[in-house]
Amino acid sequence: MRMSTENERERVQLGAAQQQQQGDPTELLPGDPGYAPPVASVPLPSLGKVYPADSPLHGRSALDVRAMTARDENILTSRPLLKKGTAIGSLIRACVLDKSVDPDEMLVGDRNAVLVALRVSAYGADYEVEVQCPSCERRFKNTFVLDRLPLRQLTVDPVEPGKNRFAFTLPVIKKEVIFGLMTGASERAARQAADEGRAKVSPGAPEENVTMALLHHVQRIGAVTDRTRLSRIIPALPAADSKALRRHIEKITPGVVMVQSITCPDPACGETSEVAVPMGTEFFWPE
């Protein structure tokens, strides 16, 4: 993961330079008393600005995270955890050294920074996955380099210190919106609601992807905070307001910039494009 300075880039890597082992590493093996796995300080894109004063993440710009072990791979193959959608949170909880940190409370961008660092420490920075050329639609294997992904830090202050609350004025109806950035818990709730919504959609009817996503962000429009009323207002917003709000949320959301360039291998195409780095099953299971 490439940071804004060389020092920051080095700090995110779980490597030998930050290894904290006790005793002689030539004698100690994993599982031996006194052995400790490598530990790194992983920068948090949010800089801890959105967490309340009583949170262990308040004002925190980095987390100490140990490298993954074979025991942690058990988490990623646990059927109950995968079914509940809590496997990733359980992995973060296991590897973050400060056990008072709740992964569900973490912003999605902070969680992703930890996950990319864990992936690099476990299986290396090279991530080979199938992609599609945006120009000719040919599918091919491409290798992304995960430790070159930059971080986008939070540059906008919340409306109140230590609160996950941000303000935006809708350009058409001129009402102020107060919204929050996605956390682990709200992302899981949004995914569950989307799955339930898709199950209820009649054949041929549109899915409510845009409005459902906004509903999980928006906390207030004008003076309205009632969730039932917001669920009626948001689908009726002018499209220009909806688009402007979504773009603003995307613009200020901190996290790992999961985008890199690919070059189509087809001689008839050869286009170089920027694409999103897919986070499928290959991300933690490269083989």
Structural write-up:
The structure is a single chain. It contains nine helices and eleven strands. It is of the alpha+beta class. The strands form five sheets. A three-stranded antiparallel sheet has the order 6-7-8. The chain has a two-stranded antiparallel sheet with strand order 1-2. Strands 3-4 form a two-stranded antiparallel sheet. The model is unreliable at 1-23 (pLDDT under 50).
Instruction: Give the low-pLDDT segments.
Output: 1-23
Distance between the termini: 21 Å
The helical percent reads 25-40%
Shape: globular
Query: Which structural class is indicated by helix and strand composition?
Result: alpha+beta
Q: What is the number of helical segments per DSSP (H or I, 4+ residues)?
A: 9
What is the CA-atom radius of gyration, in angstroms? 21 Å
Placed side by side, the strands forming the largest sheet appear as 6-7-8
Number of strands: 11
Order of helices and strands: HEEHHHHEEEEEHHEHHEEE
Give the integer mean of the pLDDT values: 86
Topology:
Blueprint: H1 6-12, E1 39-43, E2 62-66, H2 70-76, H3 79-84, H4 87-95, H5 108-123, E3 126-132, E4 139-145, E5 151-152, E6 166-169, E7 176-179, H6 184-200, H7 209-217, E8 218-221, H8 227-236, H9 239-252, E9 255-256, E10 259-263, E11 272-276
Antiparallel strand pairs: 1-2, 3-4, 5-9, 6-7, 7-8, 10-11
Helix pairs in contact: 4-5, 6-7
